[in-house]
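Reading is simple: the token line describes the chain's fold. The lines below illustrate.

. . .
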Amino acid sequence: MAGRDRDAFAEFVHARSGALHRAAYLMVGDAGLAQDLVQEALTKTYVAWPRLRDPANAEAYTRKAITTTAITWFRRRSFSERPSEHLPERSVAGPDEAVDQRTWVWQALLELPVRQRAAVVLRYYEDLTEAQTAAAMGCAVGTVKSQVSLALRKLRERLGDDPALLPLDDLLTTGR
């Protein structure tokens, strides 16, 4: 790799590492595993860097590497559900209750299968279109739609229809 390419790659890593790590963390639910995942994806991106037609697409390439690697790791490791000791009481949320609510939603998200979680994270947290999410996951747009639908159904079963707990409903009704 030429020096100029190395510099461009280093700039890319410096500029986008934080966002890539946040997305990876949301997909896997563990900071250490997310760091490993981002490093693996950046290694793949570095190897592919000279072949990228447009370096502006490096983030999409890296995001796809994160997603497919996470799915592969979860399949290989056969992660199981993480049970919690108790569910928080539902009430009007004050500051402490809001933290409990976010924790409860976070635990429900972690209980989703990795492909469903990846679809929700890419679609709603990363605010990608269905087509961009499909490209990142290496699947068809219809698969993204079905994975998101299944994920939201499972989240609703776990959390109920309370819009404060599941704000993704707004996104679905606006057709984004």
Q: What stands out?
A: The domain at 90-176 is CATH 1.10.10.10 (Arc Repressor Mutant, subunit A). Helices lie at 3-28, 31-48, 58-77, 95-110, 114-125, 130-137, 141-159, 168-174. The chain is about 70% helix and 0% strand. Residues 168-176 have pLDDT under 50 and may be disordered.
